[in-house]
Every structure is written in C-alpha cells, then in structure tokens.
Amino acid sequence: MSWKTPPPPKNYQGGFQVDLMIKDLGLAMDVSQQSASAVPMGSAARSLFTLHKAKGNGRLDFSSLMRFYQDKEGE
C-alpha cells in the first residue's frame, strides 16, 4: 500500500471522535431515508465506525479507523 503522507501513529489524538462520526453518519442516514436517497457508502462507513467503537475506540479521532486495517494486515 502506498501513501502520499504517512498514516497517523497509533497514539494519535485528533479532534473528531469516532462517537461523533457515528452520530453524524446516523443523522445523514436519517435524512437520506426521508428523501428516499440511497447512500450505500454511508451505511458501510457507519458499520465500520460502529465496529471500531465496539473495540473500545469511540473516544479516539475518527482517523484511528486506520488501526482497524493495520491490525487486519498483521493477522
């Protein structure tokens, strides 16, 4: 995998928590249902962030989702 910039270190503490991302994605999904708009990637993103939160990462910056993929590479 090639990066233009390196991924953040594992202890990166940014400013937009996974919990908030899940909340915002939920709001977006609600609006999409009200307007009968399909947003399959929104649903997929919410599922990934929910899984990441279930592993105890809800208070981390949303970019910490990269850990999920790094951990899977090592398995």
TrEMBL record:
Pfam families: NAD_binding_11
Entry keywords, A to Z: NAD, Oxidoreductase
Alphabetical list of SUPFAM superfamilies matching this protein: 6-phosphogluconate dehydrogenase C-terminal domain-like (SSF48179)
InterPro entries, sorted: 6-PGluconate_DH-like_C_sf, 6PGD_dom2, HIBADH-like_NADP-bd
Statement: the UniProt record of this protein carries the keyword NAD: yes
Domain 3-hydroxyisobutyrate dehydrogenase-like NAD-binding residue range list: 9-69
Signal peptide: none
An example Gene Ontology molecular-function term: NAD binding
Protein name, as recorded: 3-hydroxyisobutyrate dehydrogenase-like NAD-binding domain-containing protein
